[in-house]
Design brief:
Layout: E1 2-8, H1 10-14, H2 18-28, E2 31-38, H3 42-48, H4 58-65, E3 70-77, H5 80-88, H6 101-105, E4 114-116, H7 120-130, H8 145-148, H9 151-155
Antiparallel strand pairs: 1-3, 1-4, 2-3
This protein binds adenosine-3',5'-cyclic-monophosphate.
Adenosine-3',5'-cyclic-monophosphate (CMP) binds near residues 61, 110, 112 and 115.
Length: about 160
């Protein structure tokens, strides 16, 4: 099982799409392990987007991400990082495939509703940054786990 970080950005909150976007992940069969909502501090966002700090859009990105409440999620599942990236769609919402979250709900490159970790190393770093306290993450077993997956073939 893999864990990944997802951020529902301030545009998702302002547009009332948090429930529908979270529902996409839940419906797929991803397990919700962590969830918190707040206006996250600039310092955290600067750290999160450190890889982009030399890019011209960095200032606007951090400003946008700290402009209002956002939601941080930790999702778990088999190959969760790649599965979530496919559900989210291409960075530019106008080019994202229909059926993806950005493709169905977005029109913008910058206000693209969701951030999702892009690989195992990034997921580990980002989860440590956004959920530094292990008590914020819930270990639990979904009652339908054996129906979501074939236990003998996929989980043993
Ligand atoms: P995200 O998946 O959160 O990762 C980095 C974010 O930077 C990306 O989504 C976009 O919202 C934003 N971004 C990336 N490239 C650009 C760009 N060229 N102009 C504006 N925003 C960008």
């Amino acid at each position: 099982m893999e864990r990944t970080l997802v951020l529902l950005k301030p545009d998702a909150v302002q547009r009332g799409l948090v429930g529908r976007i979270l529902g996409r992940f839940e419906e797929k069969g991803l397990k919700l392990v962590g969830l918190k909502m707040r206006t996250f501090p600039t310092e955290l966002l600067e750290q999160h987007y450190d890889v982009h700090k030399e890019r011209p859009f960095f200032g606007n990105l951090v400003k946008f991400m700290s402009s209002g409440p956002a939601v941080a999620l930790c999702l778990e599942g088999k190959d969760a990082i790649a599965v979530v990236r496919r559900l989210v769609g291409a960075t530019n919402s106008r080019e994202a495939d229909p059926g993806t979250i950005r493709g169905d709900f977005g029109m913008s490159f910058s206000n693209n509703l969701v951030h999702a970790s892009d690989g195992p190393d990034t997921a580990a770093t980002e989860l440590a940054l956004w959920f530094p306290d292990a008590a914020e993450l819930s270990d639990w077993e979904p009652a339908d786990l054996g129906w979501t997956y074939n236990v003998a073939e996929e989980l043993s």
